[in-house]
């Protein structure tokens, strides 16, 4: 078995110089997505407790029955979706939830589903 090391692109958010670096950071994110499919953002200024709550709500959302998740609506552009994936016989399914980051724009249905138990 061969072990391959892959360097993950790390995007360092330097808010003091954001205007000057925005174009460069955007290109770095696009390149990371094209080459690896993901990237890591550090120094983003989001408090750890907010990240923890978001992760917990994500776990809770994806544990809900399919019929409940479908209530969020199709990802157009925001919402829930799932699709079958796989190449060369390795078949699976991926689920995704695309959210608006502006709290004032979050759909009422999404709030209802996330707050329901």
TrEMBL record:
It comes from the Eukaryota. One of its GO terms (molecular function) is 2-oxoglutarate-dependent dioxygenase activity. Keywords: Iron, Metal-binding, Signal. Residues 20-82 form the Non-haem dioxygenase N-terminal domain. Gene3D superfamilies: B-lactam Antibiotic, Isopenicillin N Synthase, Chain (2.60.120.330). Residues 1-23 form the signal peptide. InterPro entries: DIOX_N (IPR026992), IPNS-like_sf (IPR027443), Iron_ascorbate_oxido_reductase (IPR050231). This is Gibberellin 2-beta-dioxygenase 6. It comes from Abeliophyllum distichum.
């Amino acid at each position: 078995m061969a072990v391959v090391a892959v360097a993950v692109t790390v995007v360092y958010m330097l808010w003091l110089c954001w205007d000057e670096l925005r174009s460069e950071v955007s290109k770095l994110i696009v390149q990371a997505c094209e080459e690896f499919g993901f990237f890591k953002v550090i120094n983003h200024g989001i408090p750890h407790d907010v990240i923890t709550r978001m992760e917990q709500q994500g776990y809770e959302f994806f544990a809900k029955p399919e019929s409940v998740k479908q209530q969020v609506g199709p990802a157009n552009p925001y919402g829930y979706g799932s699709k079958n994936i796989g190449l060369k016989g390795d078949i699976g399914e991926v689920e995704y939830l695309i959210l608006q980051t502006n709290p004032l724009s979050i759909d009422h249905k999404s709030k209802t589903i996330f707050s329901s138990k």
